[in-house]
Design brief:
This protein is mostly helical. It folds into 2 domains: 7-88, no CATH class; 100-167, no CATH class. It contains 7 helices and 3 strands; from the N terminus they run βααββααααα. It has helices at residues 14-18, 43-53, 75-88, 100-119, 130-137, 150-154, 158-167, and strands spanning 7-12, 58-60, 66-71. α2 crosses α3 (75-88) and α4 (100-119) packs across α5 (130-137). It is globular and about 45 Å long.
Length: 172
């Protein structure tokens, strides 16, 4: 595969799958109940292997994110291959809703991360009510309605983002 010096950096972070920690036997919309979601903790290795089989070189950062790049002219193929790899391992399937216990634990971990981020000097978005977040985590969306890392990620300063995620780990 020809690589040019002009590249488009692309990353698939653990953030994308942090909420997908469970496997599922839920059927796809088309009724295929044989596909399952691979464990979230295997995401980085699975994606690195699959994308490597397709000719893309990926690395796994200390924070668990999968990093790769593609020349601008190959961006569409890179994205298509990434989507195919996600589908191969079932990462395109929705995760099951959390139990109340899992949701409460996740919310507590988000609150701890928020305090850690504040202690590093960053602003943190105001959280929703605990009850609203827990109810949403227990729904099919699994959305905590809150991402305390937002202002850090918005800086787009990779070294700062890595530092904050290393010091204030994201809930799994």
């Amino acid at each position: 595969m020809t690589r040019s010096r002009r590249t488009l950096s692309a990353s698939v972070t653990a953030i994308a799958v942090a909420l997908a920690a469970c496997t599922t036997d839920e059927p796809e919309a088309d009724g295929d109940s044989t596909r399952t979601r691979a464990p979230a903790e295997d995401f980085a290795e699975n994606m690195k292997r699959c994308m490597g089989d397709k000719g893309w070189e990926l690395t796994i950062d200390d924070d668990g994110s999968v990093m790769g790049s593609a020349p601008v002219e190959q961006r569409d193929q890179y994205r298509n291959d990434m989507e195919a790899c996600k589908a191969e391992y079932g990462y395109d399937l929705p995760p099951p809703p959390m139990t109340r216990e899992q949701a409460e634990e996740h919310y507590a971990e988000l609150a701890d991360a928020a305090q850690c981020i504040k202690d590093l000097g960053y602003a943190v978005p105001e959280p929703p009510s605990k009850q609203a977040s827990i109810e949403s985590l227990m729904s099919e969306s699994r959305d905590p309605l809150w991402f305390p890392y937002k202002h850090v990620v918005d800086t787009k300063d990779r070294s700062e983002i890595e530092r904050v995620f290393a010091e204030c780990p994201q809930p799994e």
